[in-house]
Amino acid sequence: MSVATYLFTANIIVWTGIAGYVVFLASRSATLEKRVRQLELLGADNDES
Questions:
Q1: Distance CA 45, CA 36 (A)
Q2: Nearest to 3 by CA among 37, 11, 34, 48
Q3: What is the pLDDT along the chain (49 residues), one digit of tens a residue?
């Protein structure tokens, strides 16, 4: 295999890793936003009583 092939393969692997990490962060962010909304609702319930 030529150097260009190795470079292209490494580039694909790196970008795939970056894309996977971005998907992981987006998923984690959505989970945290959902949890914050739940806590805000619980706090609102406590404020009313």
A1: 14
A2: 11
A3: 899 999 999 999 999 999 999 999 999 999 999 999 999 999 887 766 5
User: What's the Cα-to-Cα distance from 42 to each of 8, 22, 31, 33, 34, rounded to whole Å?
Assistant: 51, 30, 17, 14, 13
C-alpha to C-alpha distance for 17 and 40, rounded to whole angstroms? 34
pTM equals 0.73
Element (H, E) at 22: helix 3-48
Q: How far apart are CA 34 and CA 42, in angstroms?
A: 13
